[in-house]
């Protein structure tokens, strides 16, 4: 029996897919939710991963070349190997134990392994089956999961056009989540989901904007995939504003890379940030993954001419803003890029606290988050993977809520306080073997 077949059998026999009932408005909320992403969990689950094999073979076979390292039980730090089953199961066990009452999980994509190994090429059937496996893992611990499409979740990674039959397959795979699909999902996999009567998620498919998707055009092209999605994005935000509600934005690929390069096509990129700025009164947070770093990118409003731009906090490589720029530009929003499960860095899971009552801040306002990580080298040596608290955002930045004013304080701290910037640099790379953050 193949590794993939064995894994499918294991998951489906232990627990069949259970379709949960939809959350009813008025049900008490705990005020916590989980964000997992590429790997993230970009789980990038790899059923062919074999402990003790060569990193040079993507942790699949023993070719005798161990110069680049040997595959560990829970993954191989800094390699191009994907996530072994042991790591994925440990991550789910931690989430279930740490936040059993989480109101929902946002999953910003990439269940399936990369297609790097020419000896073990991915098939469409494997892409579908691994996504079904991840659904089963989620449903063993959580009733409300909000997923989006990752660039490795499609048959040919990065490439997909509008009205591709794969979007119908996503609808079928995700049926147990009881999502609020609209007609737009059939076009390109984007949709909205209500969290409560006054908070919803707007769930994008960023492959419509990606430079690497060879099957889409610029967003200023009539009838392009990106043009349709940006128009829908604006309409969805208008609906939120009209209803007196607030929104979270979910995106797999953020507009900028870890080195602040543009991931999106140019016309898509500029309009995207313009939308984020123009609707910053209703957008409470923007969540993404894809490049495995813990990174903050601010949406800025120019106080002189009212235009919008952005600045990324890149750690010690660059001070985000000077004192003069902090006077000229005001933070109106932030893109929260979370680190991942895939062991390019140490595996990580994030748990947010958010406002549910609306007495002090609007419902949905991010109040805090705890970032957890697992020391992968330590886990492989001991045979036991444990997630530890890496940092608590409110303590690190000395901020008690993360709306525009709170985020302004965050970027002032990173820009003007060298100690905070040093600590931010460490957490941006998920610590490695560094000591935990000291407040």
TrEMBL record:
Sphingomyelin phosphodiesterase C-terminal domain residues? 345-416
GO molecular function term, any single one:
endopolyphosphatase activity
Which stretches are annotated as coiled coil?
A: none
Stretch forming the signal peptide? 1-16
Report the SUPFAM superfamilies cross-referenced here: Metallo-dependent phosphatases (SSF56300)
The superkingdom listed in its UniProt entry is Eukaryota
Q: Which GO terms describe its cellular component?
A: extracellular space; fungal-type vacuole
- List the keywords (alphabetical): Glycoprotein, Hydrolase, Signal
Does the keyword Hydrolase feature in the UniProt annotation? yes
Q: Which is one Pfam family of this protein?
A: ASMase_C
Q: Which InterPro entries match?
A: ASM_C (IPR045473), Metallo-depent_PP-like (IPR029052)
Gene Ontology terms: biological process: polyphosphate catabolic process
UniProt protein name = Sphingomyelin phosphodiesterase C-terminal domain-containing protein
What organism does the record attribute this protein to?
A: Thamnidium elegans
């Amino acid at each position: 029996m193949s590794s993939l077949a064995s894994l499918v059998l294991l998951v489906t026999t232990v627990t069949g897919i259970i379709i949960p009932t939809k959350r009813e408005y008025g049900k008490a909320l705990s005020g916590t939710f989980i964000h997992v992403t590429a790997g993230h969990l970009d789980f990038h689950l790899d059923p062919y991963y074999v402990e003790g094999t060569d990193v040079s073979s993507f942790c699949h076979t023993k070719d005798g070349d161990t110069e680049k390292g040997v595959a560990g039980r829970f993954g191989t730090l800094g390699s191009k190997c994907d996530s072994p089953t042991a790591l994925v199961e440990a991550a789910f066990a931690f989430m279930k134990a740490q936040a059993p009452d989480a109101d929902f999980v946002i999953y910003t994509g990439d269940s399936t392994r990369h297609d790097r190994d020419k000896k073990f090429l991915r098939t469409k059937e494997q892409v579908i089956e691994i996504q079904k496996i991840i659904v089963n893992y989620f449903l063993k611990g959580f009733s409300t999961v909000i997923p989006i499409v990752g660039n490795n979740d499609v048959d040919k990674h990065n490439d997909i056009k509008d009205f591709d039959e794969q979007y119908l397959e996503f609808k079928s795979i995700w049926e147990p989540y009881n999502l609020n699909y609209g007609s737009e999902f059939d076009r390109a996999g984007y949709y909205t989901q209500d969290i409560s009567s006054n908070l919803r998620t707007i769930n994008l498919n960023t492959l419509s904007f990606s430079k690497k998707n060879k099957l889409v055009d610029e967003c200023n092209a009539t009838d392009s995939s990106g043009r349709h999605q940006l128009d829908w994005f604006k309409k969805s935000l208008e609906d939120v504003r009209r209803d007196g509600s607030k929104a979270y934005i979910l995106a797999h690929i953020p507009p900028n890379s870890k080195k602040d390069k543009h991931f999106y096509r140019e016309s898509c990129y500029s309009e995207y940030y313009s939308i984020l700025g123009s609707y910053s009164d209703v957008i409470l947070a923007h969540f993404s993954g894809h490049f495995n770093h813990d990174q903050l990118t601010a949406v800025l409003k120019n106080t002189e001419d009212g235009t919008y731009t952005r600045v990324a906090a890149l750690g010690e490589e660059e001070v985000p803003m000077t004192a003069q720029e902090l006077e000229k530009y005001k933070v109106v929003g932030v893109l929260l890029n979370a680190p991942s499960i895939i062991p390019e860095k140490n595996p990580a899971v994030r748990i947010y606290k958010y406002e549910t009552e609306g007495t002090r801040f609007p419902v949905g306002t991010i109040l805090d988050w705890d970032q957890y990580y697992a020391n992968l080298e330590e886990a492989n040596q001991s045979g036991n993977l444990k997630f530890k608290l890496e940092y608590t955002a409110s303590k690190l930045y000395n901020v008690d809520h993360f709306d525009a004013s709170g985020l302004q304080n965050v970027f002032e701290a990173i820009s003007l306080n060298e100690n905070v910037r040093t600590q931010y640099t460490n957490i941006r790379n998920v610590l490695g073997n560094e000591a935990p953050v000291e407040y």
